[in-house]
Design a protein that fits this description.
- The protein is mainly α and 318 residues long.
- 76% of the residues lie in helices and 0% in strands.
- The protein is built from 13 helices and no strands.
- The relative contact order is 0.16.
Length: 318
C-alpha cells in the first residue's frame, strides 16, 4: 500500500487534497460517494475493533457509581478475562460493528459532501475550507450519521453492560426492549448524543483538516506520511472527546437505565444526579483518562485509514 500511496500522491497537484474533490461528472460523483462510503466503513471497523476492550470497560464505569481509576479499569479487564474468557473483552463488538460501519461510512461520506457544498457556497472549491465552514462540515456530518444510526448505539451499550444470559444477540436486544420498554426507548438518550456529537465531530474533523493544511503549508510536502496522519488524528480525538465527554456519560446513563436500575429521566435530571452522587469532575468525567488512551488510537486509525483508502482508490480509478 505504501508504494501505491506514494505513486498516487505524486500525481496530485500541489494544492490538492485527496478528500476534497473538484466538481466532476455525475458518474464520477457517484464513484466519489461510493469510495467515501467504503473507506469510511473500513476506517470505522478497524478503529473500533482495535479499542473495543477499553471501550467496553469505559462504558461499564460510565453507567455505574463506582469510582474510576486506571488500576480499577485494568483490574476489571483482567477479571473479565479470567471469568469470561479472552473474547469476552470484545463482547458487544458485533453490535458495535453493526452500528459503526454504517455510522463511519455515513459520517465520512457526508463530510466529503458537506465540504463540497460549503466549498461551492463560499467559493473555495478545490481548496481547503476556511475555519468556520470546516467546523460546520464536521458538525453536520456527525449529526447526520448519529441521527441515522442511534438505535444501534443504544443496543451496543446495552450489550456491553449486561451478561450473555440477558441478551443473547443484537436481535434479542431489539425484541426485549420493544416488548418490555417500548419502541421509544430505542431513542432514549438521543438528545445528549446529538448535543455531544456536534462539538465532537466538528472539532475532530476541524482539528485533523487544520493540522493537514498546516503541515502542507510549512513542510512543503504534498501529503503527510501515515505516522503523521496518526498523530494528527490522535490530536483530533483528544480535543473532540474532551469537549463532549460529560454528555457522553449522560448519554450512557440514559441508554442503560432500563438494565442498571437508574430511572428514565431527562438530561438535566440525569446530570444533577451524577453530580450530586459522584461529584462534577469525578462523575461527569469518569473514564476520561481511558478515553485519552483509546480515543487518540481510534481516531488516529480512523482518519489515517480513510485518507489512505481514498488515495488508493483514487489511484486505482486513475
Amino acid at each position: 500500500m505504501g508504494n501505491g500511496v506514494k505513486e498516487a500522491t505524486a500525481h496530485l497537484p500541489e494544492d490538492a487534497e485527496p478528500t476534497l474533490h473538484t466538481p466532476r461528472s455525475r458518474k464520477s460523483g457517484r464513484h466519489d460517494v461510493l469510495s467515501s462510503l467504503l473507506s469510511g466503513a473500513l476506517a470505522g471497523a478497524l478503529a473500533k475493533t482495535a479499542v473495543a476492550p477499553l471501550d467496553r470497560t469505559k462504558i461499564i464505569f460510565q453507567v455505574s457509581s463506582k469510582r474510576f481509576s486506571a488500576k480499577e479499569a485494568f483490574r476489571l479487564l483482567y477479571y473479565t478475562y479470567l471469568n469470561e474468557g479472552f473474547f469476552s473483552l470484545w463482547r458487544g463488538n458485533s453490535a458495535t460493528m453493526v452500528r459503526v460501519v454504517p455510522y463511519a461510512a455515513i459520517q465520512f461520506s457526508a463530510h466529503e459532501e458537506y465540504k463540497r457544498v460549503l466549498g461551492r457556497y463560499y467559493g473555495f472549491c478545490g481548496d481547503a475550507l476556511p475555519p468556520w465552514p470546516r467546523l460546520l462540515a464536521g458538525a453536520l456530518a456527525g449529526t447526520t450519521a448519529a441521527s441515522l444510526t442511534y438505535p444501534l448505539d443504544l443496543v451496543r451499550a446495552r450489550m456491553a453492560v449486561t451478561p450473555k444470559e440477558m441478551y443473547s444477540n443484537i436481535f434479542h436486544v431489539f425484541i426485549r426492549i420493544s416488548r418490555e420498554e417500548g419502541l421509544k426507548t430505542l431513542y432514549h438518550g438521543f438528545t445528549p448524543t446529538l448535543l455531544g456529537v456536534i462539538p465532537y465531530a466538528g472539532l475532530s474533523f476541524f482539528t485533523y483538516e487544520t493540522l493537514k493544511n498546516l503541515h502542507k503549508e510549512y513542510s512543503g510536502h504534498r501529503q503527510p506520511y501515515p505516522f503523521e496522519r496518526m498523530i494528527f488524528g490522535a490530536c483530533a480525538g483528544i480535543i473532540g472527546q474532551s469537549a463532549s465527554y460529560p454528555l457522553d456519560v449522560v448519554r450512557r446513563r440514559m441508554q442503560t437505565a432500563g438494565v442498571t436500575g437508574f430511572p428514565h429521566t431527562s438530561i438535566v435530571k440525569t446530570m444533577r444526579t451524577i453530580v450530586r452522587e459522584e461529584g462534577a469532575v469525578r462523575g461527569l468525567y469518569k473514564g476520561l483518562s481511558m478515553n485519552w488512551l483509546k480515543g487518540p488510537i481510534a481516531v488516529g486509525i480512523s482518519f489515517t485509514t480513510f485518507d489512505l483508502m481514498q488515495i488508493l482508490l483514487e489511484h486505482l480509478q486513475g
